[in-house]
Write a structure and sequence with these properties.
The complex is a heterodimer of chains A (369) and B (191). Chain A is mainly α and 369 residues long. Chain A has two domains: 220 residues, no CATH class; 51 residues, no CATH class. In chain A, 68% of the residues lie in helices and 4% in strands. Chain A has a four-stranded mixed β-sheet. In chain A, strand 3 and strand 4 form a beta hairpin. The radius of gyration of chain A is 24 Å and the shape is elongated. Chain A starts with a helix and ends with a helix. Chain B is an alpha+beta fold and 191 residues long. Chain B contains three helices and eleven strands; from the N terminus they run αββββββαββββαβ. Chain B has an eight-stranded antiparallel β-sheet. A three-stranded antiparallel β-sheet of chain B has the order 2-3-11. The N and C termini of chain B lie far apart (57 Å). Classes of the chains: A mainly alpha (369), B alpha+beta (191). At the A-B interface, helix 15 and helix 17 of A face helix 2 and strand 7 of B.
Chain lengths: 369, 191
């Protein structure tokens, strides 16, 4: 990654909803052009990594919520585009060119559309106020002024002046985001539940620095909501109907379960897949993933339960190759070669090009011996 | 001109690597013909340099930004950087291979990581795996790796060859293959 892209990535992440940036001085047109180019490169890199979730119904739903909120923003900037990044960490961030990313990890912790709307409204303020551009401008002046070589700029990002700009931007995004939320007819009280959920998750992750920052923001938010004398009635389609919301974000839940399995976060993986299965109990892939979580977390006694999940997956879709492979592996490792054999054969017939196929061929030979 | 047909990027890379090796002159030594640790031994390629650290042994000819061979034996209980999954003694070779690829996929900074192949392999006489993958290094250089891994008892042994895809990877691949062929586990790791 080039130093400039590295810096942009750092700034964008500093602007993230949970682990948070900057108002005032807008960047010059040249800098803005450069910044937008860097943003486009970053987004292209995310696409190349294959971590952007393309699911038409989810994208359409997120965009509908964004448009409802954006109608309340007095600007000629174009409506932000919301994208989902497959990442089990809790993240939401806005690029200066209007692309906002929410992670599957943060969607997993949201309980309804009102909470989602607050996340999006907060990020919209970062975009509308061009906080990243202002921070970039500040950062350039700081590093040029001090003559810091690039390698030292990370310290500047974490410096006291920068931290204060970041905090100011976060407070502005909370403040104005809340106003947008209310004007769009969403429930402001859901914001406190949202922040409380996020705080609990940060505690679970032992992210102590982020916990402190979020606690400060919760206190400020409590005071803001508490002093509001005229509550706007809730008008969101999901008020009192979380099933509506979960059905719309379901693709993100299953993607998050897979991402959490990949990084070994078994509790989150289990939470995501359990939510998904409660909505869609006839999904073979979800039952397979549930089996993978039970098997790979190795918390004792998981094998019998995982066999049940794999068998459910095969009952729903007898041609789901990964469940055949997993059952074959379980029996093979237990020395039940003849039981393993048909599962391995089915896997090889259904997924001959799979990365595991050469291995399975070898195990199958051992079954025949 | 024969013998001097290195193109400019290669010359620049070579110069950078030379400087790098010079800068690291302290810990880098000429690789001994026979390199061995408590559990394994290999025959080093002639003319390569060796860097020993607590965690691993590294060999390089033109500098580690251009190519290196890394040999590591680690306890199964030792965690990975990007995944909390743990290796276990009863894992099948492809399950261990999956964990290694999951760890790489979970690296938020890795660019254009692509698994090219995942195959069974016999590593030092034991059933293990061989991964081939490509990615861009932090300087944007397309890089390729061959990664052999094997679980033996309570340790995970891995031997990998990483090099700039352009020019260097193919150039030093025979040297790596010789190192791989020379690998011996010098004590019974099952005991």
């Amino acid at each position: 990654m080039t130093p400039q892209r590295c810096m942009l990535a750092g700034m964008i992440l500093l602007m993230a909803w949970v682990v948070p940036i900057v108002a005032a001085n807008a960047a010059t047109p040249d800098q803005t052009t450069r910044l937008w180019r860097l943003a486009a490169q970053e987004q292209a890199a995310l696409e190349q990594r294959g971590v952007v979730l393309y699911e038409a119904s989810l994208s359409s739903y997120l965009q509908t919520v964004a448009e409802r909120l954006w109608e309340q923003v007095p600007t000629e900037l174009s409506t932000p585009t919301i994208k989902v990044v497959i990442d089990s960490r809790m993240q939401a961030y806005a690029y200066p060119n209007g692309y906002c990313f929410v992670s599957t990890g943060i969607l997993n912790r949201i309980e309804n559309e009102d909470q989602l709307a607050m996340i999006l409204a907060h990020e919209m303020v970062h975009y509308f106020r061009q906080h990243t551009a202002a921070l970039y401008d500040h950062f350039q002046m700081t590093s040029h002024g001090t003559g810091l070589p690039y390698a030292d700029q990370g310290q500047a990002v974490g410096g006291a002046a920068m931290k204060s700009k970041i905090d100011a931007a976060e407070h502005q995004a909370d403040d104005e985001g809340l106003a947008i939320l209310k004007a769009a007819g969403y429930c402001e009280t859901e914001v406190l539940s949202l922040m409380s959920n996020l705080l609990n998750s940060l505690h679970d992750q032992k992210a102590s620095e982020a916990v402190g920052r979020l606690e400060d923001r919760i206190e400020t938010m409590k005071a803001r909501i508490g002093r509001t004398s005229h509550r706007v009635p809730c008008a969101s389609a999901t008020a009192g109907n979380p099933v509506f919301f979960f059905n719309r974000i379901a693709p993100a839940l299953v993607a998050n379960a897979q991402a959490a399995v990949t990084c070994g976060d078994w509790n989150q993986a289990d939470q995501s897949i359990s939510k998904f299965l409660a909505l869609k109990p006839d999904d073979a892939r979800a039952h397979y993933l549930k089996g993978e979580i039970l098997r790979r977390r190795n918390d004792g006694g998981g094998n019998n339960q995982c066999i049940g999940s794999y068998l459910k997956a095969l009952k729903i879709d007898p041609e789901f190759p990964s469940a055949h492979r997993a059952l074959g592996e379980l029996h093979f490792k237990a020395g039940r070669f003849q039981t393993a054999k048909p599962y391995f054969e089915a896997f090889l017939s259904l997924a001959p090009q799979d990365n595991a196929s050469e291995f399975i061929k070898g195990y199958l030979l051992q079954c025949r011996d | 001109m024969p013998g001097l047909n290195l193109n400019r990027p290669v010359i620049v890379a070579w110069a950078a690597a030379t400087l790098m090796l010079a800068a690291c002159a302290g810990p880098w030594n000429t690789a001994p013909v026979q390199l061995s640790e408590h559990q394994w031994s290999i025959t080093s390629p002639e003319g390569w340099m060796h860097l020993s650290t607590q965690e691993s042994d590294m060999l390089s000819k033109d500098g580690p930004y251009l190519e290196y061979i890394l040999i590591q034996s680690r306890p199964l209980a030792q965690g990975f950087r990007f995944t909390r999954q743990k290796l276990k003694p009863d894992m099948l070779p492809h399950e261990a291979a999956q964990l290694i690829t999951d760890n790489m996929r979970s690296d938020p900074m890795i660019r254009q990581w692509r698994l090219l192949a995942s195959e069974p392999a016999t590593v030092g006489g034991q059933a293990g795996f061989r991964l081939t993958y490509s990615y861009q290094d932090p300087h944007g250089v397309p890089t390729k790796t061959i990664y052999y891994g094997v679980i033996v008892s309570n340790r995970f042994f891995n031997l990998r060859y990483t090099a700039a895809q352009r020019y260097y990877f193919d150039k030093e691949l025979p040297a790596f293959n010789q190192v791989f062929d020379s690998l011996k586990f010098v004590v019974d790791l099952n005991t």
